[in-house]
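For this section, I looked closely at a protein sequence along with its fold in token form, which I now present.
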Amino acid sequence: MRRIRQRNGKPNSESTGAEVADQGLANIGDERISGNVEETIARIREKLGENDDFTMRRFQVFGRYPAAMFYFSSMIDQAIVNRDILKPLMYMPAYLEDKPIEQDRLKSVLLDESLHHSEGKSEDRLAKLIGGIVRGQTIVAVEGLDAAIVVNTRDVDKRSIDTPATEQVIRGPREGFIEILNTNIALLRYRLQTSDLRVRSMEIGRKTASKVAVCYIDGVTNSDLVKEVQKRLSNIDIDAVLDAGYLEQFIEDNHISPFPQVQYTERPDKVVANLLEGRVAILVDGSPLALVVPTVFSQFYQSVEDYTERFLLMSAVRLARFVALIFSLVFPSLYVAIISYNPELIPTEFAVAVAGGRAGVPFPAVIEVLLIEISMEVLREATIRLPQQVGGALSIVGVLVVGQAAVAAGFASPITVVIIALTTIGSFATPAFNVALALRLLRFPLIIMAGIFGLYGVMIGLILIANHLLALQSFGVPYLSPLIPSDYQGLKDLLVRGPLWWMSKRPEFLYPRDKTRVSPDTMAQIKSPPDKVLNPANQSEKER
């Protein structure tokens, strides 16, 4: 008869984690281990099955009590196991050698006096123990104890912290997230050294049991936003979460919109900046990208450098970036509409040059632009998928050869190739890849509408896009905030980047609990005239 204990055959309502996330442990319920080591060994082996990297080590605690240690050798630090667990438990402390240890004191002696590890605890639920072994913990079961000792010995090889690959900056930090969750949280705490930073963890995925961390600043972030984020995440029931992008698709408000309602980034400084505004960050173990919610459209053409450089220079750069964003969306459709329906809008000399270049092209402008656009998208995708050593060379040679050959063969006009090239360059100027991808997708229906209705079709398409943006929300925040609805503080950081001392309040549309960003004393000091201590006139008077 099995002696492993079970409470009414029902899982504990407080139990979360491995026994819930792992479907293979679902039938264990709230089963508990007993003090019989052999039964515990049999039960753990039964659930874990045959694994070449699974290790079960028998030994004697203090030379008196039979015990067994369980771990996956591929996920632990063997030196820690030998030095901090096995050796201290095999050899009794000198001050206890001549003293008897009662059975009821054995657990406290092992945990509090013998174990040389700061992360040791006791656990009696079988599902928790097996889940801990799977995650890289070491389990020690001792004869006579109805709870096993759990020690965190996980040691998985990881890549070093390096410069973010997709968000390059000239002036700013060079640190990027990696795949290990604890390292990513440490990067946040390194930049945000405050006791108000809160990290709430949960596990999502029946098979992967992926650890997800929800980060926010207590006293700044709206509590309703935190509750809504945790609610949406807790409602996700999926077998595996392999990247943060899995969660993004579940928690966004509109699932069929081409525009992203969740921002992702691999820069810790960018996440900290968003946390300080009152947003919530979501980190996933195994993913080098953090999700930031809620999101508004203006975030996608802003860069980290906008705030590390002086405001006059970066305001001009941001305007150029925004023009390139609009340029990449409407330029091909405007070209098709003007060439096909309204050539009178082109200056005479330029119209003659365009007509000469299009002579001999067998396709109408809309077909020509669509073919070149599709060719450019295929070339761009091929460049991304190719090995890094040949990808750059192919992109340059491909554009030159294909473009020149298309013009020489009469397949396309030179002006069309120039238009598509400028449009592609404009899409590269958008810092956020997911928004650039959305604009690339929307270019095609705009080109088709321009080919059918001319400039009227372009305007209809832009009105539909604007109407969709006006209706879009991210966790209840209007997507075009702070423009619509208008927020005076937010407008200072919309098209241009105002001075840091102008942006004294946090964005109003996030409803932060603490609205003040820059203190009034700092504002007064900035407005007061500076002390010119090294002015030659002042120095001359002092010398006299």
